[in-house]
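Need the bound structure for flavin-adenine dinucleotide, inputs here:
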Amino acid sequence: MKPAPFTHHAPTTVDEALALLAQLDNAKVLAGGQSLVPVLNMRLATPDHLVDINRLADLARIEVDADRVRVGAIVRHAALERDEAAHRALPLLRQGLGWVAHPAIRNRGTTVGSIAHADPSGEMPSILAITGGSVRVASTRGERVISADHFFVGPMESVLEHDELVLDVDFPLFPAGTVTGFDELARRSGDYALSGVAVAITPAADGTIAAARASFVSVTERPDVLDLTPQLAGLRPDQVGTDVLATVAEAARTHVDPVDDIHASADYRRHLSGTICRRVTSSLLAELANPSAPTAVPSAEKKVAS
Ligand SMILES: Cc1cc2nc3c(=O)[nH]c(=O)nc-3n(C[C@H](O)[C@H](O)[C@H](O)COP(=O)(O)OP(=O)(O)OC[C@H]3O[C@@H](n4cnc5c(N)ncnc54)[C@H](O)[C@@H]3O)c2cc1C
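Answer from helper R.:
Posting the output first, comments after.
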């Protein structure tokens, strides 16, 4: 199918884009188009105007500083995935981005577009959630910064108003020494996950576990965070046995709320979520106990956040 007719606008400054969004009725922002264009082609949305933000050079930056990675609205998934400074600061970005669709889609699709789209099957909304990140949005009425916790409302639903543009998102860095991992299962490589899990474990100065958290892909209504600290706090990584890992898996199974669809039953997705969460946690604990040992989950890249 072809999209319904629309008028294409190509502003070259943020102010121009915001003025267009304020003036035009039934307008949508166009970033990489990797989610929006299929929706238009299927006529699930029929906007009269597209405000194309791809010429807004100010929004093409990746900034890394002592406490966060800031990603501008037209930074492609692939650019963020390749960015060495962002990777060193927050390895979980690359760990998750490698699972986003195929390279061709990552070359065009933007990380901010994925977050604005608020699809709970997207990896990056989940990573924004587990880092406790935030979204900076602007309109002709001014700017506001919204925490991930408040930004995502439900499937494909955020608090973004029709005249608001996301300028950038901030991914805060984890405390030093935190290890992170991401793993997921899809029916085919590059497909949306049946279930995906990000885990972050932070050690205390004495080597015991201080905090642990997980976030999920495709199995919750909105990206949110499961606190695994009650299961793991105070334990030494090499003392965590199968009994404790079973409680981690059970916490994950209880937390998620998947639905049946043509790809998998809700029960299977729930089971998968527990299994992946346990495996990633176990692998990270092994890494904390012995950083030079080979990892137990070869498909998930795991690095120490500095
Ligand atoms: C075959 C296929 C497989 C895919 N698989 C995956 C996958 O496994 N995991 C995954 O996470 N994603 C997947 N995607 C989606 C991909 O990651 C998209 O790039 C991403 O979801 C949206 O980014 P975009 O830049 O393409 O946004 P667009 O498609 O341009 O926009 C998406 C939505 O966000 C809004 N929007 C975009 N940017 C802004 C902004 N700055 N301010 C306000 N609103 C904005 C648009 O108006 C639109 O409603 C897949 C896509 C395809 C086509």
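Comments: Residues 28-36, 38, 53, 73, 100-101, 105, 109-110, 112-114, 116-117, 122-124, 160, 165-166, 192 surround flavin-adenine dinucleotide (CB under 6 Å). The first helix runs from residue 14 to 23.
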